[in-house]
Amino acid sequence: MIAMAIALNPDILIADEPTTALDVTVQARILLLLKELQRERGMGLLLITHDLGIVAGVADRVAIMNGGRIVESGLVNDVFNSPTHPYTRKLLGSMPGRQGFSVPRIAPQDEPLLLVVEGLSKVYSAPLRLFSRVSEQPVRALDSVSFTLKRGETLGIVGESGSGKSTLARTLIGLEKATGGAVSYCGQSLIDAQPTKLEKTKRHIQMVFQDPSASLNPRMNVGEIISEPWAIHPDVLERKLWKLRVGELLEQVGLKKSIPNAILISSRVGNASGLRLHAPWH
Fold it and tell me: Rounded to two decimals, what is the model's pTM?
């Protein structure tokens, strides 16, 4: 996309969220590339982003928008160090680390262990090459991963793209089959347990996927999507209570009870998926 944008040697390059969903190391390389291209070609660079850290590291001047209007503008150092508009102060105040880091709550030593992972491994076998008897080298996505998680504790898994974070999550919930190691929830194995016991255990471990837009079925309306876990586990909630509980859950995550009739559509506004009304929820 960058090559296409500079093919006609433009005077102005508009970069609209060019590093969205990239990890920090790839993001840094993309931003460095844009700055190098700007310097070589003398372009003006209009960088559109929600990431204030990118603005601080790349931009000369910054304009803060809210509600379709520019509420504050100026040199980056001036705006970041002495903001005048309440919205700008709100944005800067929400930057991680700007107000310092709070002391993490340490889980008491007597809290029970929820999750125990010991030597978890996942190796993907590569298929044979076309017209060849030689196969590709196997990919070791997880290599002896071990950790514990206590009740009420938060554990952060951090790494670059391709480091194995998503594979670890998918293996924990059974979407990927582990090659080796052990995983136990409240003392019960999640690797070699009987299917009937495993099905009941897994309802206590849920996942929010990386890309919500690609994780939801566009043929189902919002009410049907939220109700799907109860259809799989019918003993959790009676069907006549589904609609009421869906409304409660929507309100719990900051949405309205009136949207179970809506369906997700593929168009996007900014970073949010659009909604439109569907047939009555049933």
Answer: 0.71
